[in-house]
Amino acid sequence: MNTEVDAETLRRWLEEGRPVTVWDVRDDRDRAEWHIPGSLHGNAMEALKDGRTDALPSIEFPAGRTVVVVCPKGRTSRIAAAELRARGVEAVSLAGGMQAWSLAWNTAPVALPHPTAAVLQVRRTGKGCLSYLLGSEGQAAVIDASLPPEIYLRLSEERGWKLRYAIDTHIHADHLSRGRTLAEMAGAEYLLPAQDRARFPYRPIHDRDTLRIGAARLAAFRTPGHTWESTCFVLDNQALFTGDTLFLAAVGRPDLGAAGGPTPARARMLFQSLQRIARFGPGLLVLPGHTPEPVPFDGKPLVATLRETARQLADWGDSEETFVRRVREHLPPAPENHLKILEYNLEGVLPEGDVTELEAGANRCAVSKG
Question: CA–CA separation, 132 vs 311, rounded Å?
């Protein structure tokens, strides 16, 4: 039998609901940072590295299921899988480990009352990035592409849509934008909020600009704070694509120095932007750019109404000073490699070769109450 399985195969197994057990042998800290949805956990990294005979506990796995063993980079998991096979368990190692899993993805349709438009949430479950494929009357747009362009092109083709726009809500620092490359491959336009940081040609989007995608209209609303150019997009007063400005129970971090301006000043801008967003109808659906948890393969979109997100953050909005203080108190560590990633995005290029190590780790774009 094969002794390894690649990340795309495991992704497909989980999407299809194939009977498989994922066993994560990483240490507790790495597990808490990010994991595969539905996986079991047993901290065995040090014992496996030391070659101890008690490295693997006497664990009973469900019968008739392949066990996929996961570690950071796919080396220690090979040792564990070999030990399990010696015990008669059908076990394989995830090639490349969680680093390779960074590019795993799944999708969920977003239910909207729109008469002609459809929205698909494309979830990079191994990273927490959420992008969107919006289609209407044969035309389509992708917002915040974080996965290989071929995935969006295939999803569009399956629905009979031709890509017209690839849009980024801001210049990202946690993942490599695939928007410009996607636009080039599809013969579409690449759109980015107007600013003076990007070092490549693009179509600038300004506050209150409106785009037509088939019969749908997408209106831009400048919401600075996470970055100076951060912009939200409203789909016909039904859905709000918030990028990294507003999440379902958190707000975008305003502290990354490379994004311009001191943290307190940008936190105040973010507060004002959230006040602007709050003036939209409470039933407007919030479609964020990230999630802090691994996304299960359940086909259920990660969405909430503006009313629900406001309830989650109610005590943060008491005043501007309260908001600034709480944001600064709850800042998480900076994203790994964010300066390198930002530099690629400012140049509008993707690095050659395997990018999983550059992008490895959970996203840390949000400031939450927890």
Answer: 25
Give the separation between CA 167 and CA 209, rounded to whole angstroms.
Answer: 13
E-assigned strand segments in the chain: 4-5, 20-24, 40-41, 66-70, 91-94, 106-110, 117-124, 129-136, 139-143, 162-167, 189-193, 203-205, 210-213, 216-222, 231-235, 239-243, 250-252, 285-288, 304-305, 366-368
Residue with tokens 């949805």: 37
CA distance 69 to 357: 19
Given a contact cutoff of 8 angstroms between Cβ atoms, the answer to whether 139 and 159 are in contact is no
Angle subtended by helix axes 263-278 and 320-329, to nearest 10:
120
Global pTM reads 0.95
pLDDT in tens, 271-329: 999 999 999 989 999 999 999 889 999 999 999 999 999 998 888 878 999 999 999 88
